[in-house]
């Protein structure tokens, strides 16, 4: 398992060791002990899976404490551009984002800790995304920020995405800040 840090501390790209032969492939998609060896200790309690068509953009989503979620995201069919945005007030990387291409072919996963908003867009005809979360889904705690907020400036590789009504009406990061519970603390 290869753990690659990103420009946002805590957000990492995980590439498992894949064994391929004439029959196909096999790999560990999750191993708590191997992650613990890299100081990544999260308990995942729910798996979510979505299927979306080309041009769909989902995000930027997160859940509020006490239902805040760490996410381990992978694409099991197709290709996505996956993004994490630091929404922790006071963080040296507040408002910054990182993105990674995840696909069924590259086996990469993006680890998105609580305190970061998450979103992805679909680059293939269809894509199935599977992600582990550390807290169960709670509609009362679910929030989002605008996918196209110019203050964040995510370089999405699609110009006119297919959006849900909720994502289309999400507030800017500045509008969200008034009541944010995500505050950066050192250590």
Kindly describe this structure.
This protein has 187 residues and is mainly beta. The chain has a single domain, classed as Jelly Rolls (Sandwich). It is built from three helices and 13 strands; from the N terminus they run ββββαβββββββββαα. Strands 1-2-10-7-12-5 form a six-stranded antiparallel beta sheet, with no helix packed on it. A five-stranded antiparallel beta sheet has the order 9-8-11-6-13, with no helix packed on it. The protein has a two-stranded antiparallel sheet with strand order 3-4.
Task: Briefly characterize the structure.
With 187 residues, the protein is mainly beta. The protein contains 3 helices and 13 strands; from the N terminus they run ββββαβββββββββαα.
Keywords:
single chain; 187 residues; mainly beta; Jelly Rolls; six-stranded antiparallel β-sheet; five-stranded antiparallel β-sheet
Per-chain topology:
Elements: E1 2-5, E2 12-15, E3 18-21, E4 24-27, H1 32-36, E5 46-53, E6 57-63, E7 71-77, E8 79-86, E9 97-103, E10 109-112, E11 116-122, E12 126-133, E13 142-144, H2 165-168, H3 173-176
Antiparallel strand pairs: 1-2, 2-10, 3-4, 5-12, 6-11, 6-13, 7-10, 7-12, 8-9, 8-11
């Amino acid at each position: 398992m290869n753990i690659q840090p990103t420009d946002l501390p805590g957000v990492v790209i995980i590439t498992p060791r894949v064994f391929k032969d004439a029959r196909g492939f096999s790999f560990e998609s999750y191993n708590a002990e191997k992650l613990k060896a890299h100081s990544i200790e999260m308990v995942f309690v729910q798996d979510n899976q979505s299927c979306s068509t080309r041009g769909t953009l989902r995000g930027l989503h997160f859940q509020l404490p006490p239902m805040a979620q760490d996410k381990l995201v992978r694409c099991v069919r197709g290709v996505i551009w996956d993004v994490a945005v630091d929404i922790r007030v006071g963080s040296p990387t507040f408002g910054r984002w990182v993105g990674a291409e995840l696909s069924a072919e590259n086996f990469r996963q993006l680890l998105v800790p609580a305190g970061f908003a998450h979103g992805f867009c679909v680059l293939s005809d269809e894509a199935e995304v599977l992600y582990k979360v550390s807290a169960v889904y709670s509609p009362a705690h679910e929030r989002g920020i605008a996918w196209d907020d110019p203050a964040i400036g995510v370089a999405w590789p699609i110009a006119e995405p297919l959006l849900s009504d909720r994502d289309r009406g999400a507030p800017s990061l500045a509008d969200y800040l008034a009541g944010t519970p995500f505050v950066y603390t050192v250590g």
